[in-house]
Design brief:
Strand content: under 5%
Shape: globular
Number of helices: 6
Low-confidence stretches: none
Number of strands: 2
Strand order of the largest sheet: 1-2
Structural class: mainly alpha
Helix content: over 70%
Radius of gyration: 17 Å
Oligomer: single chain
Order of helices and strands: HHEEHHHH
Mean pLDDT: 89
Length: 191
């Protein structure tokens, strides 16, 4: 065991351990509560700037689930939540690419943070990968496919918005995950 009773886990074991998290009713109930919180945050704390920039806090529950339960649970949670949010507030047609992006975000955050202390460097690394690969890469591709605008025409604005949000999101998630590590994670280690 390492610091804070967190066992080091190799990548294959992370997946298996994360899959096993679904056996616990406590985990499923907690994910349901995080889903409800994400929906409330989506309704109450999202700021839209134009068609392509959205600033919101509804991703906080996703990061908490990714951190606590790993890449598999994070992917399932992210995909399910994306679909649920769409049905609750449909804006445009449903596009499965965004669901895939939400799932991959759970995988990245879960892989980097699961069963590890949430250091500023780890949170930054997860945020950087998601913002570069998923937000600027895949989501820009999905927007191009949906709206027919050139990839390179959309990309600069998305790069700027993600670059601005990178330090903000890193600090926000770091602070939140520190609190989760101290107050919530021990509840799941006990039971």
């Amino acid at each position: 065991m390492t610091q804070n009773n967190v066992k080091p886990v190799v990548s294959k074991s992370k997946w298996i351990s994360s899959v096993r998290e679904f056996r616990s009713t406590r985990v499923v109930v907690f994910c349901g509560m995080m889903c409800a919180l994400a929906i409330v945050l989506n309704y109450t704390s999202t700021i839209r700037i134009g068609d392509y920039i959205r600033i919101g806090f509804s991703g906080i529950p996703n990061r908490v689930v990714d951190y606590l339960f790993g890449p598999f649970v994070g992917a399932v949670f992210g995909g399910a939540l994306d679909i649920i949010k769409y049905f609750l507030t449909p804006t445009g047609g449903f596009f499965p690419g965004f669901t895939l992006t939400a799932m991959l975000g759970g995988v990245i955050h879960g892989y980097i943070l699961y069963r590890r202390r949430p250091t500023l460097a780890r949170v930054f690394a997860a945020q950087l990968l998601v913002k570069v690969l998923l937000n600027c890469g895949l989501n820009t591709l999905w927007l191009q496919m949906l709206y027919g605008q050139g990839f390179m025409a959309i990309l600069p604005g998305r790069i700027v918005s993600n670059a601005v949000m990178l330090p903000v999101d890193t600090l926000l998630y770091y602070i939140i995950l520190q609190a989760v590590d101290r107050y919530i994670r021990p509840r799941f280690l006990e039971g």
